[in-house]
Amino acid sequence: MLQIKNLHAGVEGKDILKGIDLDVNAGEVHAIMGPNGSGKSTLASVIAGKEEFELHQGEIVFEGAEISELDPEERAHKGLFLSFQYPIEIPGVSVTNFIKTAINETRKAKGLDDMPASDMLKKIKEKADMLEIDRKFLSRSLNEGFSGGEKKRNEIFQLAMMEPKLAILDETDSGLDIDALKVVANGVNKLKSKDNAVIVITHYQRLLDYIVPDHVHVLMGGKIVKSGGKELAHKLEAQGYDWIKEELV
Length: 249
Description:
This protein has one domain (2-248): 3-Layer(aba) Sandwich (Rossmann fold), CATH 3.40.50. The protein has 249 residues and is an alpha/beta fold. The strands form 3 sheets. The chain has a 6-stranded mixed beta sheet with strand order 6-9-10-3-11-12, with helices on both faces. Strands 2-1-4-5 form a 4-stranded antiparallel beta sheet. It has helices spanning 40-48, 72-78, 95-109, 117-130, 148-162, 178-191, 205-210, 230-239, 242-248; strands at 2-11, 14-24, 29-33, 53-62, 65-66, 80-83, 90-94, 141-142, 166-170, 197-201, 215-220, 223-228. Strand 1 (2-11) and strand 2 (14-24) form a beta hairpin. The two termini are 34 Å apart. The model has no long low-confidence stretch (mean pLDDT 89).
């Protein structure tokens, strides 16, 4: 589904990613871990097409098509979704109106008519119930005055509504208490299928107790320096990253 080949990228002339290779197949969950400043959020941003990041070298191939020249919204229409580490507030735009617009813009890009209002309401109700979201929450301005947990739950609600092919979750677990973490993880697990894939970027093993990865990658110094199964995340939790640094010397 996603092939990243020799990706070099950065911001304001600074090289942050220094040769990333990554293959993600449909049906898989990949976890990307690593110390602060290793390039995890940069990788998520470059895949999603955030404009402040510059791609210096390499390819991003999504479902067989090179997408590195596409705008963020074009990538979204193709089925890419990025859950932000720090979701922004949009006063005056309700959660419901935002999600209706997002879904209908994607349908328009595919040559489809707007989703009928009755179908939209049914889907909103179904996904809100799945994520234990109060209906009043949906009429509030997007992320305005939301707690950290509410912002993250709202991101997963958007994910549930958009049903992307590839979801990238950038530190969705940061700032969540254990109950909110379980709700968010449960939502992600219900959305997983053989036809979609998830990339989870996290510092902590605890999220991976609930969203169990097929593959774990360690990003350090702008490169993937180690890959393994879920047991690698357990080892990182217990021993930190020093043992990997020693292996690299």
